[in-house]
Amino acid sequence: xxxxxxxxxxxxxxxxxxxxxxxxxxxxxxxxxxxxxxxxxxxxxxxxxxxxxxxxxxxxxxxxxxxxxxxxxxxxxxxxxxxxxxxxxxxxxxxxxxxxxxxxxxxxxxxxxxxxxxxxxxxxxxxxxxxxxxxxxxxxxxxxxxxxxxxxxxxxxxxxxxxxxxxxxxxxxxxxxxxxxxxxxxxxxxxxxxxxxxxxxxxxxxxxxxxxxxxxxxxxxxxxxxxxxxxxxxxxxxxxxxxxxxxxxxxxxxxxxxxxxxxxxxxxxxxxxxxxxxxxxxxxxxxxxxxxxxxxxxxxxxxxxxxxxxxxxxxxxxxxxxxxxxx
Length: 327
Known about the structure:
Glutaredoxin; 10 helices; Glutathione S-transferase Yfyf (Class Pi), Chain A, domain 2
C-alpha cells in the first residue's frame, strides 16, 4: 500500500534537506548565518625566488577548463604568449568522487597520480586541505609553487618575459596598481566570490544579501564602462581578466544554477560589449570552453542540480559580434 502523499513529501524533504546540508558543508563551508566561506589557498611561493628561478618549461599549470579561477591563468598565459614556456595539464571534475581527476597521466611519471587529492598529498606529505586548481607546479623539484590564482597571474605577467611572445604587455603596471587592487578587492567579494555566495547560500537571508551585493556591483561596473573601455581606463589589466572569467560564465551557469537571475549580462548595455571586447582579444576565445563550463557546473554540482541535466542554451554566438568599445 502506498504511503499518503503528505507523508511522502515530508519524509522526502527531511531526508533531502539533511543530505543536502551534509554535502554542502563539505563542498561549500558556511558560517553560522549560512553564508559561504571560501577557504584560503595554502601554497603561495613566487617566481623568481631562490627556490624557484624563472626557467622555460620547468613549470606547468594544472587547470580545469570549467573553473573560473584556473581560467584566469589560461588567459594571462595566452595574452603574454607563454604557451611554449608554460605547458598545461587539464583535469576534470568527477561528479561521483567529488574531486578533480587527471584527464591523462599526471605531469610527472614519478607521481603517478589519478586525482588531485593524491597529487597534493604527494607534493606535501600529510596535506589535509582542499585539492583545488589552478596549480603552478615545479617539475624539477616535484613541488607546488602556488595554488592561488590571483598570485599566479601576477607571476605569469612578469616572471617569464624572456620567453614570452608579448613581453611588453604589462597587465599590472605600477602606475595603475592602486586602481587595479581597489577593483580586485571589490569584485572578488561581491562578484567573483559573490556568485558562489549566492549559489552556495544555505539560508534565504544569506542568499539575498549576496545576490543584492552582486547586482549592485554589476550595475556600478556597467556605469563605469560608459566612459572607460576597461576598468582602469584604455588598457586591459589583471582586474579585467579577473572579472571576465566570472562574466563569461554568468549567463551560462550562474544565472540559472546559482539563482543569480535578476538580470543577464547580455542585458547590460556596456557589460555585454565589454565581455565581447575581451573575448575577441587574440588567444582569449581559445581559453573559453563553454561546453566544459556547462558540463562542470550542471553535471557535477549534484547538491544544486540532482538530476544532472545540462541546459542547451544560452546562445553565445553574439560573442563574436562587434563590440564598439574602442570608441
